[in-house]
Amino acid sequence: MTGLALIQIKSEGGRHVLHQKLSSHISCGDCAIRHRAVCARCDTGELAELEAVKFYRSYPAGAPVVWSGEQMDFVASVVSGIAALTQTLEDGRRQMVGLLLPSDFVGRPGRSHAAYDVTATTDLVMCCFRKKPFEALIEKTPHLAHRLLEMTLDELDAAREWMLLLGRKTAREKIASFLCILARREAALQMKSVGHAMTIELPLTREELADYLGLTLETVSRQISALRREGVLDLVGKRGVLVPDFDALQDIAGDDGDGAMLS
Amino acid sequence: MTGLALIQIKSEGGRHVLHQKLSSHISCGDCAIRHRAVCARCDTGELAELEAVKFYRSYPAGAPVVWSGEQMDFVASVVSGIAALTQTLEDGRRQMVGLLLPSDFVGRPGRSHAAYDVTATTDLVMCCFRKKPFEALIEKTPHLAHRLLEMTLDELDAAREWMLLLGRKTAREKIASFLCILARREAALQMKSVGHAMTIELPLTREELADYLGLTLETVSRQISALRREGVLDLVGKRGVLVPDFDALQDIAGDDGDGAMLS
DNA sequence: GCCCAGAATTGACCCAGATCAAGGCGGCTG
DNA sequence: CAGCCGCCTTGATCTGGGTCAATTCTGGGC
Prior knowledge:
- The structure is a homodimer.
- Chain A is about 40% helix and about 20% strand.
- By secondary structure, chain A is of the alpha+beta class.
- Residues about 1-20 of chain A have low confidence and may be disordered.
- Chain B binds a DNA duplex through helix 7.
């Protein structure tokens, strides 16, 4: 795995990223996810305590972070990039059960082993906290515990939204729903309103998308092609999707619009 | 379990059960779910504060508790009976996104409107807390907040387990998985080990089961019939299921066995 | 005991999406 | 520049589960 990391990682620009464990130590005050992550509501003192037990790790696209069942002695926030949580049946059928975007939290306080496979689907940087001290901090820092509860409740809502998609939506609706969520998030980050033409960067391969949506990669590909033929979207390279009319896409997605934001 | 609920309600006086709000006020100390619910870790003082803002409601089987989008000025624990959380698409397709068993928690602190339809699938008694004071208690009672976090994390795990089922399992596996979960829970409550022949009481109609499993009621019925023909299970009335060999059922369910407990 | 409504079963048929099987298209590597 | 490897697309065919439509149970009320 380390070998893989060394090879692929240069896609990120090449200079320093070669080690899995980064020596650089960003100050929490300067952190891009400072106000959205689990630490969002911590005051300066609490932040200092977190700072003392944190370290960064980075993973190249495609690298595993942990395997289900493995010992996991840290919890973490995604700083940049995207990670996927997946579950697998013995015969190899896979279902992605969560997509972790910047500021999302990985790991469960009070559990020593990973419950899911965690994989970097793009180059990924995580801010990790040693589990023991983090658990101690939760006990004595209401700000931290409260924010974690809030984030977990959001995740639960998102998971349930996804259950509706997996259980009841058609392949076409699944694709449209996923693109809607990405588009909404993109718009929110750029402070633009949805509705205008916009380009989305897919963070997943067709196969990963299939695992997320409960489909096969062929069906994903066919449905995307169909939507393109109908003018609902246009492809820009393999990963870029241009959506000329967001409302049209949302119509196809089939839900009432204000669906759960991804993260 | 359904029977249990019925008995408990009747024993409560028989006459007034038709009213939604019960006048009786059980002391928290005597409560059946005292050590499993959100209050599990509260000390006597904290319990007293909860007691001051709680009230009971009961609902007959089939009754709605709240509709999605409706104002909801309380949060609650299920005391006895079973409730279902469902989401619905405009065209009527329904997906159950959670099954609430005794001790499970309903409602989200910090949110004023229900996110899902909540329905009693059996006669149901809930211990409700007025939302405002409950939220205040969470802020100042780490025991309460911590337990709620733990329960929410459990729910999240269960939801993700269910995503695997919805996205990747066959109808047959879905039915078997559901029965396995019920059986394991039944065994746990009765302190018996699984493996022996055991009878399970289905808390849901075929249609509700279909909504839970992402199937149609016809498919549910056919798969149950098929399993019966094969001798994997036997029906006792409409709702009773006799499982002669738990391991055989678990084999069919397709997952590694130690799946998430329901609640 | 009889009736009836709601729940469940069963059958016939169909279709969305899976499966199997070829290619195509970049982008790296040698 | 050739060749290769990872993706992605597209086609042909198959099938699990959905849809539509009768019956058949079953248990509760009178």
